[in-house]
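Case study B.
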Amino acid sequence: MDGVTRMRTSSRSSGGRTSRAARAALLAPGLVAIGVSFLVPLAWLARMSLNRTVGSAELQSAVSPQSYVDVLTDEFVWKIAWQTLQLGVLVTVLAIAVSYPIALFLARTRSRLRGLLMALAIAPLLTSSVVRTFGWLTLLSDDGVVNSVLSGLGVTSEPLTLTNNRTGVVIALVEIMMPYAIIAMIAGFGRVSKDLEDAAGSLGAGRLRCFLRITFPLSLPGVLTGALMVFVLTISAFVTPRLMGGGRVFVIATEIFDQATTTLDWPRASALSILLLFLFGVFLVLYQRLFRLVEGR
Amino acid sequence: MEDAYLVLSKLTKTYPNQPRPAVRDVDIDVARGEFISLLGPSGCGKTTTLRMIAGLIVPTSGGIRVGRVDMTNRPVHKRDMGMVFQSYALFPHMSVGENVDFGLQMRRIPKSERRRRVAEALDMVHLTHLANRRVSQLSGGQAQRIALARALVIEPTVLLLDEPLSNLDAKLREELRVEIRRIQQETGITTVFVTHDQDEALAMSDRLVVMSEGRVEQVGEPWAVYETPRNRFVADFIGRTNLFDGLAVGRDDGLLRVAVEGLGTLSVRTPETGRTSVTVMVRPHRVQLEPVEQLANELKGRVVQSSYLGDVESVVVEVDGVRITAERTHSGRPLALGAEVRLGWGDTDAYVIPQ
Amino acid sequence: MTRRISRRALLPLLLAPVVALSACSTGGDSDGVGDGETTIRLMAYATGGFKEKYLKSVVEQFEKTNPGIKVEYDGVVSSAEMLGRLRTQKSNPTIDVVIMDLSVAESANKENIFAPLDPAAVPNMKDLSEHAKVRDNFGPGVTFDNLTLAYNTKAVTTAPTSWNDLWDPAHKGKVSISAPPQLDGIGLTVILGDMLGVDYQRSIDPVVGRLRELAPSVQTWNPQPDTYTLVKSGQVSLALAWNARSQLQRDLSDGALGVALPKEGSIMQVNTINLVKGSKRASAAQTFINYALGPEAQAAFAAEMFYAPTNTLTKVSDAVAQRTVMTPEKLETMIPVDWNWLAEHRAQWTDIWREDVISK
Ligand SMILES: Nc1ncnc2c1ncn2[C@@H]1O[C@H](COP(=O)(O)OP(=O)(O)OP(=O)(O)O)[C@@H](O)[C@H]1O
Ligand SMILES: [Mg+2]
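Model:
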C-alpha cells in the first residue's frame, strides 16, 4: 500500500519529461504491432502494384503504373466496383435497419437481463463468418428451413432461389454484420438519454414525435458509426460473396482474390487492394464530415 | 383544502420486485399559484412522487388531479405540466431558441406567436442574447435558466422541478433561488419543487412537505415546520436542534415541568399534551450563553467543542453528561475548550414535540 | 471521450481486410539438411486425398529404395498458391521439388523459379508420353487428369454419356460448373469448341452461345466447399469435375457419386514435377523426380488416385486403366490443348464468361 502511494507521488512529481517517456513506452508496442501488421504489408503491396505481369502470369519486376492504368481502364473493374458499392449500401441499410431497434433497446434497457441479451446479440462474433455463411447456405437452400416453412405455409409453391445468388449474399451479410452494427451503434448512442425523452414528453411530444425529433437525431452518431463499420466490412467482405454467391456475385474482394490466387496477376491484385484502401480513406473522411454534422459541432 | 388545485390522494408507488413501496399513501393538496417543496433525505421518494405527478411514472395506486381533471391515467405528453430536470435535459442537437420553441411546436402554435413567446421566455430569464447558442456552450446557470424558460413557455398548469439547483455552486444556487421564486410569483404558476437542501426549501416555499421513507411526515409553512415540528424526525431533519427526552412531572399555569436526566427539571410553555414521556426541542440559536437576564431554564457546563463559522459560532456544552448545542452570534474570539459557561433559555424558547 | 475512443478503435477494424489481403504470403523456411542424410522438400497439393495417397504410394517407397534421402511433404491448396510461395523465396528457396499444374509451371519457368532437369540425372524422362514433355527439359508431366461428368447416382439413374446431358432440362438448377478463371471452365470451353467444330484460338462465340443456354440450369458457378461434396450430398445432380478426384470420391462415397467420361472426349490436365532453381539439394531432388517419373511410382499412384501415368512404360491393372484415360481408345478421344496459349488468354476468357454467360 505504502509503496503504491509512494510510486504514484514520485511519478507525478517528476514532471513532464518522464511522463512523456512513459507514454512513448506505453504506445510503443501498439505502434510496433501496427507497423509490422499493417505498414510493412502495405508497403509490400504498394511495391508489388508497380511490378508488371507479362504473358500468362509471369511476374516481372518493374516500376510501372501499368497495373493501375489497366485496372482503371478496365470496364469490368468499374462494373464490379459499382456492384460492390451497391452491395455495400444495400447491406448497410438493411443491417442498420434491423439492428437499430435491438441496439436502441439494449442501450436503454435497465433490465437485469441486459448483460445476457447483449451477449446473445454479439455472440455470433464468436463463430467465424465462414461457419455462419455455411449455416445460411443450409438454411436458405431449396430444401432448407426457410423454403420448407414458406411452402409449408402455402406462401410459395416453388422453392425460392435464395442461395448461389445476390439475395443469399445479402441475407447472409446482413446477419453477419448485425453484431458489428449493434456494438458500434450502442457505442455511439451516448447522447440518447431517458431524461431527454422524458423532457420531450413533458413538453408535449408523443412517442412517435419524441422518437423522430429527439431519440433518432441523437442516435445518428451511432447510426453513422455503425453504417461506416458495416459498409467497410461489406465492401471488403470476401468469404460470404464467395461462398454464397454461386460464382455470380462479383465484388472487389473476390476479384482481388481471383487475381492473387488463380490468375496470379499480383500487380493487378495489389493495385486493386490499394484502390480499395483508397476507397476506405474516402469513406472515412466522408464519415468524419458527416459525424461532425450530426453531432452539431 | 377548499381551493386545492393539484391534489395527490393516497398516491402509492411500489417498484417492480421491491418489497416496500417507494412512496406510500401520499396526500398533498396544493393551492393554485402555491410554491411547495418536497423535502427529505435521499431515497425518501421525492423524485418518485414528482415523476408520478408529471406522468413519467405510473402510480401503483392513488390518484392525481389538477383542477377538476383527473390526471392519473393521462400520458405525460398530454398533461400540460412543465418539468425541469436536475440534469437540465436540454436537447443537445438544438440551439437554445429551438429548445425553448420545442414545446410550442408540439402544440402546433403558429410560427409568429411562437417567436414572440420564445422571445418573452428568454427575456424572462434574461438570456435573450443566447437564443442562437448551442446548448453545449452554456454555463450551468445559463442551462438551468433555459430549462426553466423551456418549461414555462408552454404555460403549463403546474411547474415541477427536481433538484434543479443541485449541480450549481453555492453562490449561483442562491442567485437562482431568488430568480426562480421571482418568476414563479410573476407567473403565478403552481409549483412543486424537489430538494434535499432545507435552506433552499425554507427560503423559497410557501409550504414544505417533509418526507421520509416514502411517507409525508409533515406539511406546513416553513416557519411552522421549523418551529413546531410534528415529530422527532422532522425536528431533527429541519435545522440543527437539541432534543431532550424526559418525563412530564407537573404543570401549572401553561407551564409544563419536564424532568430530564442530567439537566434537572425544565420549564416549557406548551399546550396540554396529556403525555408523560415527552421530547423537548430547543434550537441552538435560542440557547443563550452567559445570559444577562434571568431565564426559566439555566444550567452550567463546560465547553467541549466550538466551531467558528464566521457569522455564528457553534458551541457544544456538556452539562452533566448531556451535550447541548448553542449558537453565539456576537462577534469576538471563540470560546476556549474546557471553559466553564452558564447557559439557558426561556420557557417559550423550547417546544414539546407532540409525538 | 468514449466516443473518441470508439472512433479511434474503428481504424484497425477498417484496416483489417487490407492486412488480411496483404499478409497472405509467407512461407516456412526451416532448413532441410540433416546429418549424414539429405532431406528434400516436396511441395504439392494438400487437398482431395492427394497428399495422403502420394505419401503412401510414392514417397514412402522412394525413401525405402533410397535410404540416404528423406522427403518432407509440404501440402499447399493450389498451384497458384505454390507459385506465390515460391515467388517470395526466390532468392533463397527452401523447397526443392514442386508438383503443380502445367500452366502455372509455365509461368514459374519463365520467372526463373524452376530450373531445367538434367536428362542424365532423370533418365525416365525419355519414356514419357508426348503430352508430358515440356520444352527445354523443364519439369515434365507427372500425372494426367481429365475433365469428366460427376453425377449423383440417386438423382441421375442412367449414367450420362455426353456433354450435352448438361443441357438436359431434367437437371435444371442442379448443375455445377466451376467457371473460369478455374481450369474446369477453361477446359469446358475447349471441349465445346471441339464439339461445335470451332478453333478456340480463333473465336469462341459459338461456344458462348451454347453456354448461355446452359446458364439457367446452373445452380452454382463456384461450387462450395467443392464440387464433389455438392454432388455426393445431392445438392447438385450433375457437375463438371476432374476424373481423379471423382474416382476417389466414388469409392469413398460407396457410389453415391458416379463418374462418366462423355463420348465426345475430354481435355487432359497435366501436373508437372519441377526442380526449384537454386535448390541446394538438386541432385537428391532429381533422384526423387526420376523415381516419381518411373513406371513403378506411376503405377502405384495411378492405382491409388486414378491419375493416369505419364510414363509410357507404366503397367497398371485393367480395372485401374478403365478408370483413367490410360486406354488407347480413350487417349484417342482426348482433345489437344495448348495450355501455354490458354494461360495467356485465361483472363480474357474469364471476362467473356462473366460478361456473356454468368451475368445473363
Ligand atoms: N426504477 C426504480 N426501481 C426500483 N427502485 C427504485 C427505482 N427508482 C427509485 N427507486 C427506489 O425508490 C426509493 C425512492 O427513490 P427516489 O428517487 O424517489 O428518491 P429521492 O427522494 O428522489 O432521492 P434523492 O434525494 O437521492 O434523489 C429509493 O429507495 C430508490 O432506491
Ligand atoms: Mg431524486
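The helical segments of chain B are 46-54, 96-106, 111-124, 140-153, 170-187, 198-204, 222-227, 232-237. The remaining cases will be described in the next quarterly update.
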